[in-house]
Design goal:
31 helices; Hypothetical protein af1432; 749 residues; globular; 6-stranded parallel beta sheet; 4 domains; Rossmann fold; 7-stranded parallel beta sheet
C-alpha cells in the first residue's frame, strides 16, 4: 500500500515528511479540544479527521513532490461527511471541511469567486475531482460512532433564532478546524526548519488575579478618602460580590469616573475563577483608545502584563486583499486569541463572529468559555443591533460565556423595553440611580444655534474649556481660527494624529489643567470614550444623548468643583451639518430634551432616549436582514456564509491604515517589519503609529506619492507608510490641502 503524506519536508527520502495519518489524527484531536466548551467535540473531531481526505490521492502526492498541477483536496472530505451524517446535519461539518482553505461558502446561491457547498458536493470523482484511496484511508483512520451526535447539537434552543444558532455553530466548528489545521502545520514546519515553536505558556488567571489584587490594594492605599473614591470602592466591592453569581448576561451601569474599568476587570477575574472560565475578552468601541486600555491592564498585571495581555484590533485584516496566497502569508499576523487577557475592538470582535475567512474565524472557538466585557455598550452598531444581540445571547446561552454590558449610558436592550430583548440580565453595580445622583456634578443645558464666531467668543472667554464637534474638518477650522488670533493654550485632538502623538498632546493638556493654566481643547468625539481629562466647561455639538453623557464625563470628572461651577453646553451648529449617521441620534436627543426631564443624563432620560432611537430605527436594526436570511435557510442548513460576511460591515466606508514614522521607535519598527518572521509582534508594537484614512483620501495620497508600501515583495499592498513628512503636522497630524483628500475627510467623525 502506498504511503501518503500531508506535508513535504526537505529530505528526498521523505524521512522528514509528515504522514497524512499523523496530520489528520493530530488535527482531529486539537479540533476536539477546541470545541470542549460548547459540546461539539465529536463533530469537530470528525471534521478534523476528514478535512484532508482528498490528499489520499496519487495526484496530490505528486503535487508534494513538485508537480505543477494543482489538486483540489477539500471537497472529498465534505462529500464523505454527507455519507456519514444524516441530511441536513452533515452540513455542520461539510461547510468547514470544504472551506478550510478558501473560506465558508454560500450553501446554494453563488458568492463572489467561491463555489457553493451544494455545487461542490455534486462534483463526481473522476476528471474534476480525484478519488481518494479508500483502502488506505479506511485502514489508517478510525471513524467515531456518530449515531448520538444529532440529539446533542443544541442544548439550549431558541426557536425564534434557531437558524442563526445553526449558522453560528457551523462557524464555530469551522474555527475549531482551521485553527487546529494551522497549529499542526505551523508546528511541523517550524520543527522542520529548526525553529522553536512557541505557543502557550501564558500566565494563569489565578496568578493574574493575585497581581491585580495587589495593584488595586496599592492604588486604594495611596488614594484620598474623597467621596468619589469611596463610591468607586463601593462599586468595586459590589462587583466582586456579584462575581459569585451564575454565568450569563450582566450590566455594569456606572457613571463616568466611577472606576468601571477596574471594577469590570475585577468582576471578570473573580467570576472566571469561580466558574472555571479561561479568559477575559475586553471589547472596546474605538481603535483610538484601545492602546490606552491595554496599557492600563498591562500595568495592572505588572511583570506578567506583556505575556498576558493581547491587543488585537481591526487595523490589519484581510478584507481588501484579493490574492488568497497573500492572505495565507498574513495568517501569522493574525492571532487565535489563546492568551488569558484579550483587548480588542467591537469591529474586530463582531465582524469576526459573522466572518467567512479562515484567518478571521480562527480565534472564534477561543471566545467560548470566556468573560466578555463590552465596554461602552451603547455604541453597539444600530444597523446590526439585532444580529449583534443574537450573537451576544448565543454566546451566553450555548458557549459558556458571561457577557457584561458596561457603560455609563446603558442601552435599553432588555425586556420589556426592547421587544424580544435580553432576559434575566443582572446588574453588577449597587443602585445605579443613586450612583448617578451622587457622582453627577455637572449642569447640562442646550444653547440652541451657535455660529462658529459665537463658539470662538465663548472659547476665548473660558480659560479651560473642551469643545467637541462632529467631524475632523470642523475641529481643524476652529483650531486654526483660534491660532490665528493668538489665543493662549489652544490644543487640537484628532484621529489624523497617530495614537503616540495624541498621547503626547494629552499629557501636556493634563499638566496644564492640573496647574490651572489656560487650556482650550478642540476635539472630535475621540476624546469622549475613556480619555481621562477633567475640564470645568465642555461644549458639545448636537449628537446622541449617549455622546452628550460621554462628553459630560470630561467635565468635573474628579468632582473638585460644585455643580454650579461645571457646565456642559450643547449647541446646534448652523455652519456645519450633523453627519447623516448622527442625525437620527441627535433627533432622539432633542425629543427627550423636549420632555423636560429633571436630569437630562439620569437613568430615566437615557432609557427614554434609547427607546426613542430604537423606535425610529424599527426594522433597520437588522438593516441587511441577516437574521431573516439565517431563518429562511434553516430547514436545509443552506446558509449564505459568504454573503453574510460581505454584508456585515460595521464601518461601510473602508478605512486604510497608514504607518507614521513619528519617532525613532516607529522608524526602527518599520525597518523590522520588512524582514522579521514575527510579523504579528511587530505589528502590535506599530499600532500607536497608525492613522486611519478613508479610501478616497488614501487613493489621493497614493497618486501623489505621499505614501508607499512597506516591503511589497513580502506583503504586496497590505501595509503603507507615510514618506512625505511635510504633510504630517505637529498640531493637525496628517494635513493636506488636496481637494479629494479634504472631501474624503469632511465626513469622518
Amino acid at each position: 500500500m502506498n504511503q501518503y503524506f500531508a506535508h513535504s519536508g526537505s529530505d528526498n527520502t521523505k524521512t522528514d515528511w509528515q504522514s497524512l495519518q499523523n496530520h489528520l489524527q493530530v488535527v482531529a484531536e486539537i479540533a476536539k479540544h477546541n470545541a470542549r466548551y460548547f459540546g461539539a467535540e465529536e463533530l469537530a473531531y470528525l471534521a478534523g479527521l476528514l478535512h484532508d481526505l482528498g490528499k489520499y490521492t496519487p495526484e496530490f502526492q505528486a503535487r508534494l513532490e513538485g508537480s505543477p498541477n494543482k489538486v483540489e483536496h477539500a471537497t472529498a472530505g465534505a462529500k464523505m461527511a454527507a455519507e456519514i451524517l444524516p441530511e441536513p446535519f452533515y452540513k455542520l461539518i461539510s461547510y468547514a471541511i470544504a472551506g478550510h482553505h478558501a473560506g465558508l461558502a454560500n450553501g446554494i446561491n453563488e458568492g463572489d469567486g467561491r463555489r457553493t457547498l451544494e455545487a461542490r458536493l455534486k462534483q463526481t470523482f473522476g476528471k474534476e475531482l480525484c478519488q481518494p484511496d479508500n483502502a488506505a484511508w479506511r485502514k489508517e483512520l478510525t471513524l467515531p460512532d456518530v449515531s448520538q451526535l444529532v440529539p446533542k447539537i443544541r442544548p439550549h434552543p431558541d426557536q425564534a433564532n434557531h437558524g442563526f444558532q445553526f449558522a453560528f455553530l457551523i462557524r464555530m466548528i469551522f474555527s475549531c478546524l482551521v485553527d487546529a489545521d494551522f497549529i499542526d502545520t505551523d508546528k511541523f514546519y517550524k520543527q522542520l526548519n529548526g525553529k522553536t515553536w512557541l505557543r502557550g505558556g501564558y500566565p494563569e488567571l489565578p496568578e493574574l488575579k493575585q497581581v491585580f489584587d495587589a495593584h488595586l490594594a496599592e492604588k486604594t492605599k495611596n488614594s484620598s478618602r474623597s467621596k468619589v473614591n469611596q463610591l468607586r470602592q463601593e462599586i468595586l466591592t459590589t462587583a466582586r460580590e456579584r462575581a459569585l453569581l451564575s454565568p450569563g448576561l450582566f450590566t455594569l451601569t456606572v457613571p463616568t469616573g466611577g472606576g468601571k474599568t477596574f471594577s469590570s476587570m475585577a468582576f471578570a477575574l473573580d467570576h472566571a475563577l469561580q466558574h472555571g472560565m479561561r479568559r477575559i475578552i475586553y471589547v472596546i468601541p474605538f481603535t483610538s483608545i484601545i492602546e490606552q486600555n491595554a496599557k492600563v491592564f498591562r500595568e495592572a498585571f505588572g511583570e506578567l502584563g506583556d505575556s498576558a495581555v493581547l491587543e488585537h484590533h481591526s487595523n490589519f485584516d484581510d478584507r481588501h486583499i484579493k490574492n488568497e496566497e497573500t492572505q495565507d502569508k498574513l495568517k501569522l499576523a493574525m492571532e487565535n486569541w489563546d492568551m488569558p487577557i484579550v483587548v480588542t475592538t467591537a469591529v474586530q470582535f463582531f465582524e469576526s463572529l459573522f466572518a467567512d475567512r479562515p484567518s478571521r474565524c480562527r480565534k472564534l472557538h477561543n471566545i467560548s468559555g470566556s468573560v466578555i466585557i463590552l465596554d461602552e455598550a451603547q455604541t453597539l452598531p444600530l444597523k446590526f443591533l439585532k444580529p449583534v444581540m443574537a450573537a451576544i445571547d448565543e454566546l451566553a446561552r450555548n458557549y459558556g460565556c458571561t457577557i457584561v454590558l458596561c457603560t455609563a449610558t446603558q442601552p435599553a436592550l432588555c425586556e420589556p423595553d426592547f421587544k424580544k430583548g435580553f432576559e434575566n440580565v443582572r446588574e453588577i453595580a449597587p443602585n445605579p440611580e443613586r450612583l448617578f445622583e451622587e457622582l453627577s456634578l455637572v449642569s447640562v443645558s442646550h444653547l440652541g444655534e451657535v455660529t462658529d464666531d459665537e463658539l470662538l467668543e465663548r472659547i476665548q472667554a473660558n480659560d479651560q474649556i473642551l469643545t467637541i464637534v462632529n467631524n475632523r474638518r470642523h475641529a481643524q477650522s476652529l483650531f486654526k481660527s483660534l491660532k490665528e488670533i493668538q489665543v493662549e493654550g489652544v490644543f487640537h485632538l484628532t484621529t489624523l494624529m497617530c495614537a503616540a502623538h495624541r498621547v503626547q498632546v494629552l499629557n501636556i493638556i493634563r499638566d496644564r489643567l492640573k496647574n490651572n493654566q489656560a487650556c482650550r481643547v478642540i476635539s472630535t468625539s475621540l476624546i469622549e470614550a475613556g480619555v481621562d481629562v477633567d475640564f470645568p466647561r465642555v461644549m458639545r455639538a448636537e449628537a446622541g444623548l449617549d455622546s452628550i453623557a460621554q462628553a459630560a464625563g470630561r467635565c468635573n470628572r474628579e468632582r473638585l468643583k460644585t455643580k454650579e461651577e461645571s457646565y456642559v453646553w450643547v449647541f446646534k451648529s448652523p455652519d456645519w451639518n450633523v453627519p447623516p449617521e448622527l442625525d437620527g441620534l441627535a433627533a432622539g436627543m432633542r425629543s427627550v430634551l423636549r420632555r423636560g426631564y429633571d436630569n437630562l443624563l439620569g437613568q430615566e432620560a437615557i432609557n427614554a432616549y434609547f427607546s426613542e432611537v430604537y423606535w425610529r430605527k424599527g426594522d433597520d436594526l437588522d438593516q441587511k436582514k441577516l437574521l431573516k436570511m439565517c431563518q429562511d435557510h434553516a430547514p436545509k442548513l443552506s446558509f449564505p456564509f459568504q454573503t453574510i460576511a460581505k454584508e456585515f460591515r460595521m464601518i461601510e466606508s473602508f478605512m486604510q491604515p497608514v504607518f507614521i514614522p513619528f519617532n525613532e521607535e516607529a522608524k526602527g519598527l518599520l525597518e523590522q517589519l520588512k524582514n522579521t518572521d514575527e510579523v504579528g509582534k511587530v505589528l502590535r508594537k506599530l499600532q500607536p503609529y497608525i492613522v486611519q484614512i478613508p479610501q478616497k483620501g488614501f487613493e489621493s495620497l497614493v497618486i501623489a506619492g505621499a505614501i508607499q508600501t512597506v516591503a511589497p515583495h513580502r506583503f504586496e499592498d497590505q501595509f503603507w507608510e507615510l514618506i512625505n513628512q511635510d504633510i504630517y503636522d505637529e498640531e493637525f497630524g496628517i494635513s493636506w490641502n488636496d481637494p479629494t483628500f479634504i472631501k474624503a475627510e469632511s465626513s469622518v467623525t
